[in-house]
Specification:
single chain, alpha/beta, 3 domains, about 30% helix
């Protein structure tokens, strides 16, 4: 049975591996639940690594991708943090009061000015290219468990105001297996540069994601034709039942046969300023 200390060590080793790959130009921030012994223990693991900054912050869940602040850059190049509302993916988990506050806490720890946006938005529910394009899904942002009472037009206006985007592409859904986040777009879309997008495809007609992937592709391609500059760079296929994938503690990719309902991997990626070979 894995103890809390074992879990802390696993997370710390993972962060340490990332820091070595990313290089000194990209610092790793590691949040720790609570301010007692676990924070002290994790800090001790990174005493000799200046690229990792450990802060003891109270959180309810570890998914900072969704509950953390979104950093925007003003026309004068200064950075600002937008702290959106968070309700545990439509109040699926409780409590979530610490996660609802973590965005502002992280921003203040980074020394950034904080602006509170008056509506719910998770980081994984949007994909942006940094040059004005935002992609999201109807199942998530228009869900009554996020912002009841806000129309599609009102949500679009809010996204433009708080994130500085000018073009919004609506997909129908993320992936069929995603019951927790209600169709987050980060499962199916990621930008690799301005107007260059990776898109999750699904060629298998027996896969429950087939029709939705085709609809998403049609919408992305329609947006590309309308604007003339959006390029669908790559289309990934869903992993098959015999596809190899990594499991914790394994030395490499392991093949797991018989997993017909294997959920798709994230299409997400992490842009970095420099990476060590």
């Amino acid at each position: 049975m894995m103890t809390q200390r074992d879990a802390a060590r696993t997370a710390a080793v993972t962060a340490l591996s990332y820091s070595r790959i990313l290089g000194a130009n990209d610092r790793i921030g590691l949040g720790v639940i609570g301010t007692g012994g676990r924070g002290t223990y994790v800090k001790s693991l990174f005493q000799k690594n200046a690229d990792v900054e450990v802060r003891a912050l109270p959180i309810d869940d570890a998914w900072m991708r969704d509950s953390g602040p979104i950093i925007v850059r003003a026309p004068d190049t200064t950075r600002h943090a937008v702290h959106f509302g968070f309700n545990a993916w439509g109040e699926k988990y409780a409590p979530y009061d610490q996660d609802a506050a973590i965005g502002a806490r992280v921003a203040r720890a980074l020394g950034l000015p904080v602006y509170d946006a008056p509506f719910v938005l998770e980081g994984g529910s949007i994909a942006v290219d940094g040059a004005g394009i935002l992609v999201t899904t109807e199942r998530c942002l228009l869900n009554e468990n996020r912002n009841p009472g806000m129309s599609k037009a009102e949500i679009e206006d809010a996204l433009r105001h708080w994130l500085g985007v000018d073009r919004i592409v609506w997909l129908r859904d993320g992936i069929a297996e995603d019951a927790e986040t209600d169709g987050h777009v980060d499962n199916v879309v990621a930008f690799v540069g301005p107007a260059r997008v990776l898109l999750q495809g699904c060629a298998d007609p027996d896969n429950p994601n087939h029709a939705n992937a085709a609809d998403n592709a049609a919408r992305i391609l329609a947006a590309a034709r309308a604007a003339g500059d959006l390029v669908v760079h790559v289309r990934h296929e869903f992993p098959t039942a015999d596809a190899p994938f990594f499991t914790p503690g394994s030395a490499g990719a392991q093949s797991h046969p018989g997993t017909k309902d294997l959920e798709a991997c994230f299409i997400e990626l992490l842009p970095v300023t420099r990476a060590n070979e």
